[in-house]
Amino acid sequence: MIRSIPIKQLTGYHNSLTFLSKRTLKTSSSLQYARFINNSTRITKEISPDELRRLQQAQEQAKARAFQYEQSHSYPPPPQPSYSFTLPENKNGIITPNDPIYDILKEPTLVIERQIEFMNLFLGFEQANRYIIMNATGEVIGSMQEKDVGLAKIIGRQFFRLHRPFDIDVFDKYGQLALTIKRPFSFINSHIKAYLPGYDEFDDLMFECVGESVQSWHLWRRRYNLFKLEDEQLDEYEQFGMVDSPFLSFDFPIRNAEGKIMASVDRNWVGLGRELFTDTGVYILRFDPASFEGVSTHYGEEVSSQGVTLDQRAIILSCFTSIDFDYFSRHSRTSGGMFSFGSYE
């Protein structure tokens, strides 16, 4: 019998490590914590040189093009990835090809770059996060922008730091609102939800919850549980994946109930000097088995042959923002300012 997890049951493991060690989340099957053989910090493995070189070349080409869509401009069609992929059936999902987010999530690989925050760099002043979304060829296909409305939010961002709430809007390449990611204030564990925008019969903007990512506290490991909303009326969520990465890890594989890697969020440190003197970062989100080509020696046979559905990809995208903020933002390492180099990982 399949058992879905009501969201109210999730609050029980927010504050107790002991409780976490004893509790097993029940879904259609039991998701066990992923383990590494030596259970120790793994040395960061860079993206393969060929893949990194292609990505850097594609980024330069993409940034040379204007981000905003103009009908008067006609660009040559971007090169297509050399591999084929298929989208799994979005069973009991709400995202369709008619939604603006579809053109982003249909990609087997997303490359996301956080933009430079100059006031954060020189003054340690936390600014709203901004991201550019690219596909595997470096074509800009969207953007992400943290809402920065009102003096209270600006002040709260400086004082609450890692505990602060935030809303991030995801836009497609035409500037249409495609997804909204919301995180409330949290004392310990971050709890983030993905919402699909739409319109009701009165043409009023409304949001439907797709699912959520919940950080699971651990003394040194980096853990997240990913849930998809199965029944909105009963507020029932079913877990489809979990992240359990070692201390100081830069790779966050997402494992399914069988322990196979279904997707991953990888932090790629491009240019050590640039990472040291700015607050930018590049992430690679892999959704399809074909997107793991080139890093097979890293993940091996642990990659699942099944892909990730559209709804699951939206939740993984929201989890990425939490990972970036919890472990790789300026406030996750230090109080900021350009003289705090020693805190960088």
TrEMBL record:
Record's GO cellular component terms: plasma membrane
One protein family per Pfam: Scramblase
Family: Belongs to the phospholipid scramblase family.
Species assigned in the record: [Candida] subhashii
Name of the featured protein: Phospholipid scramblase
Record GO terms (molecular function): phospholipid scramblase activity
Lineage: Eukaryota, Fungi, Dikarya, Ascomycota, Saccharomycotina
